[in-house]
Design a protein that fits this description.
By secondary structure, this protein is mainly alpha-helical. It has one domain. The chain is 69% helix and 0% strand. The relative contact order is 0.12.
Length: 132
């Protein structure tokens, strides 16, 4: 029996299965979840893309992201919100990089992102993005 794959942000996808999917299929699965859950988003494609990036980092075993998901859940966030928290930080990080007057090396950019992920707390994310 061949069933169509689905995505649930409350459950960590199987890394091997996730990484075997085409990137567009990952994004489409995430979009489908949000549409079926009737989550109103300004741009479901952009939202799903950031979800996919975080899930890719988890599946690839990016240590700081794996630890952050675990830490944020222990701090009271759902896994879905933990993904949102990291995705929000990633979006901020990319925005800052795009608006820098100087060009940093890839290693500096990576270190800055990983450091920010390591410092991320549920309280910080909730106060910045949820309690507005």
């Amino acid at each position: 029996m061949n069933t169509k794959p689905t995505y649930d942000p409350g459950i960590q996808p199987n890394a091997e299965f996730w990484l075997e999917l085409d990137e567009q299929e990952r994004i489409s699965l995430i979009e489908s979840f949000h549409r079926q859950a009737k989550i109103d988003l300004p741009n479901v494609r952009v939202h799903a893309t950031f979800h996919a990036i975080v899930e890719n980092q988890v599946a690839l075993g990016v240590d700081c992201v794996v630890r952050a998901i675990q830490r944020l859940v222990k701090q009271g966030l759902s896994r879905h919100d933990a993904v949102h928290a990291i995705a929000s930080l990633l979006a901020d990080h990319l925005y800052e990089q795009a608006n820098l007057k100087t060009v940093d090396t890839a290693e500096v950019v990576k270190t800055r992102y990983e450091s920010a992920v390591e410092r991320l707390t549920a309280r910080e994310w909730l106060s910045k993005y949820v309690a507005e």
